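Lecture notes, part 5. Sequence design as translation. It can be helpful to think of inverse folding as translation between two languages: the language of shapes and the language of residues. The source text, in structure tokens, appears below.
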């Protein structure tokens, strides 16, 4: 395999899909060496079969807003690869959603799910519908309309969606309800469900907690931990909130959080009382992070990212490409020693190069944020055996999965000088399992 050639062919076949090309390029360049040790892979054209999704569903959604206007949105489900288990991956509702973004996310999800050690394939879906500024009744009508199309493509052994940007407990509840009505079956087809109807304890916390468990493993290898470390967090949604919560619990200090309008900088630290305020602001009142600055009298910077502030650790937890090369250089200049990604692909390729050239600890989302889908996998198991585990049991399993993902990254990513290239480690480890399963199952 020649990574550049494969990428060129994909760009030609799927033009105008920049995020998808970016994600594929990162994987291909890091697995090329390992792939080429296996001539049987090339003979089976494994690489094209792995890069191109199994199938993509695309449909129009029609719904009526509170003023009686008829609205349309686009809906998608990308079923990327099911070599090691049913398709599994979140649903994103955001105005920026398009096929390129969902194809990148589904591609990444395939490797991430492989890393978790659980039997899950990769998929992703969503819509360009934005819940921002919509009433709960509008969100429900939209979701029900979305499900009228999606339901026929998913199922507990086929494809199991979960949440992502713009899709939290409220949206999953509405999706599950409509799916149940259409199929007349009560199954574990969604994860991230409410506790009362099959959801797992610790699922809301899992991505953020898992990211910090992974970070702790990286820090441990350097003989340090989180005590007294200043952390820059971006985002203020599900992942950011529980990332901050775990940092506080382990003795770190969170000084920034953000939303799509700007970021707040609180040099005194966002303590648990202030974090509760943010959770209420975002999850119940659906307000803006700016209101935190007004309440606690700290700095708010409109239209900017928090990466220019001084911190020991950066935890990007909002969205893709939110941390570029300039941000990365600023972080390094300010003494940042570790970056662990809660979001998917938040660092641009240039930023990743800056981190790796500076030899700081850098964990890609594919490894560091895999805790979310891991607990989704545990939710699927609990639904199958019709039992629910305690928070302690789930948290213990989550911790041990994050430790094993870290070990896999170290095994496949340690370079000659001892530096751990976590990108390479995660990609090679994730790839090998899927590749072997695909080889065993014939040419499909
Ligand atoms: P939420 O919708 O709960 O929160 C997203 C946060 O990011 C919000 O603060 C939002 O601001 C901000 N944001 C969204 N889009 C943009 C943008 N274009 N520019 C700047 N800020 C933006 O989503 P999650 O916390 O669930 O997801 C965050 C990231 O983590 C995503 O990359 C997601 O794919 C990834 N992830 C999530 C998992 C999960 O379990 N939920 C699992 C693994 C990864 P605003 O309030 O203004 O919309």
């Amino acid at each position: 395999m020649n990574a550049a050639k494969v990428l060129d062919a994909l760009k030609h076949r799927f033009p105008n899909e920049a995020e998808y090309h970016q994600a594929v390029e990162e994987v291909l360049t890091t697995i090329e060496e390992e792939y080429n040790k296996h001539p049987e892979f090339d003979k089976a054209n494994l690489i094209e079969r792995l890069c191109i999704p199994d199938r993509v569903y695309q449909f129009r959604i029609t719904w009526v807003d509170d003023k009686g206007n008829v609205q349309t949105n686009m809906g998608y489900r990308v079923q990327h690869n099911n070599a090691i288990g049913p398709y599994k991956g979140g649903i994103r509702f955001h105005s920026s959603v398009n096929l390129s973004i969902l194809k990148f996310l589904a591609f990444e999800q395939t490797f991430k799910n492989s890393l978790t050690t659980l039997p899950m394939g990769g998929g992703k879906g969503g819509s360009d519908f934005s819940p921002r500024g919509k009433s709960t009744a509008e969100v429900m009508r939209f979701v029900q309309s979305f499900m009228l199309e999606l339901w026929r493509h998913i199922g507990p052994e086929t494809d199991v969606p979960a949440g992502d940007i713009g899709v939290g407990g409220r949206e999953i509840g509405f999706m599950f309800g409509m799916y149940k009505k259409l199929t007349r079956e009560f199954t574990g087809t969604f994860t991230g469900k409410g506790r009362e109807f099959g959801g797992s304890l610790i699922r809301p916390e899992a991505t953020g907690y898992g990211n910090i468990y992974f970070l702790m493993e990286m820090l441990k290898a350097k003989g340090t931990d989180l005590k007294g470390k200043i952390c820059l967090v971006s985002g203020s949604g599900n992942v950011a909130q529980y990332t901050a919560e775990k940092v506080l619990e382990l003795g770190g200090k969170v000084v920034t959080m953000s939303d799509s309008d700007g970021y707040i900088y609180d040099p005194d630290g966002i303590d648990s009382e202030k974090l509760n305020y943010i959770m209420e602001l975002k999850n119940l009142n659906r307000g803006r992070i700016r209101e935190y600055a007004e309440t606690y009298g700290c700095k708010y910077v409109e239209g900017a990212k928090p990466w220019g502030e001084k911190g020991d650790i950066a935890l990007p937890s909002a969205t893709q490409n939110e941390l570029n090369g300039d941000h990365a250089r600023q972080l390094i200049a300010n003494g940042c020693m570790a970056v662990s990604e809660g979001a998917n692909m938040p660092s641009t390729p240039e930023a990743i190069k800056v981190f790796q050239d500076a030899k700081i600890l850098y964990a890609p989302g594919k490894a560091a944020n895999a805790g979310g889908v891991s607990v989704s996998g545990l939710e699927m198991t609990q639904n199958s055996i019709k039992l629910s585990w305690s928070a302690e049991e789930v948290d213990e399993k989550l911790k041990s999965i994050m430790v094993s993902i870290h070990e896999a990254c170290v095994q496949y990513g340690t370079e000659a000088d001892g530096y751990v290239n976590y990108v390479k480690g995660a990609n090679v480890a994730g790839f090998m399992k899927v590749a072997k399963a695909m080889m065993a199952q014939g040419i499909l």
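The translated text above is only one of many valid answers, since several sequences can fold into similar shapes. The mean pLDDT is 98.
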